[in-house]
Write a structure and sequence with these properties.
Helix content: 40-55%
Number of domains: 1
Number of strands: 0
CATH architecture: Orthogonal Bundle
Structural class: mainly alpha
CATH topology: Non-ribosomal Peptide Synthetase Peptidyl Carrier Protein, Chain A
Low-confidence stretches: none
Largest sheet: none
Radius of gyration: 13 Å
Length: 94
């Protein structure tokens, strides 16, 4: 399963309780749509750190990184090590 689909599945299962995921666009604001609140953002942070093995720093907690499935996917993919580079996941600037 690719990054976006893993994130979408988590959001749909944990915040929409398995319903309405087909109506949620990747670019829809999770906060403005009422899908997540501040506690939901913390749950997303935990999910991202555990699932993808990356560190989310306080400075990373911005709408540019966490407001939609698409923005969260881009954030995670920027944080993941480049295949074959030998880089371990780290806290590179997003």
């Amino acid at each position: 399963m690719d990054t976006e689909n893993r994130i979408r599945a988590f959001v749909v299962d944990n915040f929409l309780f398995g319903k309405g995921g087909d109506r949620l666009s990747s670019r829809d604001s999770l906060i403005a749509q009422g899908v997540i609140d501040s506690t939901g953002v913390l749950e997303l942070v935990s999910f991202v750190e555990l699932t993808f093995g990356i560190l989310v720093q306080d400075a990373d907690l911005t709408p540019d990184n966490f407001d939609s499935i698409a923005s969260l996917t881009r954030f995670v993919e920027r944080k993941l090590p480049v295949e074959g580079s030998g880089d371990a996941p780290d806290s590179r600037a997003a």
